[in-house]
Amino acid sequence: MAGKIIKAPRGTQDILGTDSYKWQFVERLALENAGLFGFSEMRTPTFEQMDLFKRSVGDTTDVVQKEMYEVRAEKGKDLYGLKPEGTAGAVRSAIENNLLKGALPLKVCYVTPCFRHERPQAGRLREFHQFGVEMFGAQSPSADVEVICVARELFQMIGLKQVMLNINSIGCPTCRAEYHKALTEYFRQYQDKLCTTCLERLDKNPMRILDCKSTVCSEIAKGAPVVLDYLCDDCKEHFEGVKKRLDALGIEYKIDPTIVRGLDYYTKTVFEFISGDLGAQATVCGGGRYDGLVKQMGGDPTPALGFAVGLERLLLIMEAQGIEIPKPETCELFIASMGEAANIKACELTNALRSEGFYAECDLMNRSVKAQMKYANKIGAKYTMVLGESELESGIAKLKEMETGTEREVDFRADLAQALYDITIERATEDLAEEFGGEALASAMGMKR
Ligand code: ATP
Ligand code: MG
Fold this sequence. Notes:
The protein has helices at residues 17-36, 50-56, 62-67, 87-96, 141-158, 173-188, 196-204, 215-221, 233-248, 293-296, 311-320, 340-355, 369-378, 389-394, 416-436, 438-444, and strands at 40-41, 47-49, 70-71, 80-82, 106-115, 127-136, 163-169, 254-255, 267-275, 283-289, 304-310, 333-337, 360-362, 383-387, 396-401, 407-411. By secondary structure, it is α+β, with helices and mostly antiparallel strands. It folds into two domains: 17-172 and 232-320, Bira Bifunctional Protein, Domain 2 (BirA Bifunctional Protein, domain 2, 2-Layer Sandwich); 333-444, Rossmann fold (3-Layer(aba) Sandwich), CATH 3.40.50.800. The chain has an eight-stranded mixed beta sheet. It has a five-stranded mixed beta sheet with strand order 13-12-14-15-16, with helices on both faces. Strands 2-4-3 form a three-stranded antiparallel beta sheet. Strand 9 (267-275) and strand 10 form a beta hairpin. Helix 1 (17-36) packs antiparallel against helix 5, helix 5 (141-158) runs parallel beside helix 9 and helix 15 crosses helix 16. It is elongated, with a radius of gyration of 29 Å. Adenosine-5'-triphosphate (ATP) is lined by residues 85, 116, 118, 123-125, 128, 130, 262-263, 281, 283-286, 308, 310, 312-313. This is Histidine--tRNA ligase. Pfam families: HGTP_anticodon, tRNA-synt_His. Homodimer. GO terms for molecular function: ATP binding; catalytic activity, acting on a protein; histidine-tRNA ligase activity; transferase activity. Belongs to the class-II aminoacyl-tRNA synthetase family.
């Protein structure tokens, strides 16, 4: 029975071969760059117990209240959630695997899919990807700055322009108590105007109202007291320490007292990297400290902090700024063949080339030589070679450079890989000579005239 075509879920996207190299590029850069700061990759499950997210992300946040995907096995009774972010799993894993009893600070990083049931739009998906880092055990402001530097360095390596760093401090539970009182008083004046979710938040978690996306609530929030005015001495000193270090390292930033972040676990320093190339979804990276979370999740009290970069948004900025990502190499050699014996020989030769690290292909479709050449053209093969009866007999075939049409004879029974190496080097030398002039090239290679 011919079925109706099933489409991918709304808010998800396929990353096809025409784009996957871009993902590989940014993911590799992100992990390598983090490696230079001592972060090693950690992979945690795509789903976790629902309670993990309720307790860490917070059950008065938008993420938990409105955006979670729940998962239940058909026959199971346990409730799981697809991860909406990476920190909860990393904290769980660090505690469960006793990593916090090893060398501190512990530095981990990850690339992970995340799931949030939001309204899909440019830069906002229901399945998206984050690159994130988490650092455990360090309470010094230097740690905050190092974590900020990991993101900043990545953006610089990629060549992003105009990505602005905004920072704020949202204090600790001590100073937060005073602030909550002031906030509750402020918002109570408007209680008949707030949305129903925020009305509930008024007593439970008034800071969440500052993060509400409804126009009425966000308008009211504009006049709310700011947390920076309520910091205790310890939090004030920490924030001064962060600013002093950012200044010393020549890192530009703005203080934005309205950043509160959408997840409950943050304390003290919070920060965002913002780009003008993203439209409404301007935040490419969000992060901060979460000094209370490890204890809250059952571990020993351990200060911690981290950030997450949205990879879709990162790629959107790169595209908007015309940043080129190196394209994967195309096929070096397509070996066409006529007849079964030649086809078998072609298979053997392509396999040998692959073991030498060359990208090679041969016919798998039983096509005519003409159709094989058409395919070779389509995949952008740099060289082609046709094997027929006479080539099999003599062991000599013509190697054709597709771009120029020039042909040369090669003995394919001898070392075909070596022949390709020689040609590649010859071509590279010609390119260099063209670019820099023969003399410059000769001197660069240490040759005397
Ligand atoms: P926003 O305010 O844009 O909703 P957020 O505060 O919910 O972001 P975080 O939870 O801090 O985002 O996640 C870190 C990063 O992950 C964001 O800065 C963004 O780049 C990316 N991100 C978050 N939600 C989405 C989404 N639905 N689609 C694509 N990227 C996202
Ligand atoms: Mg959000």
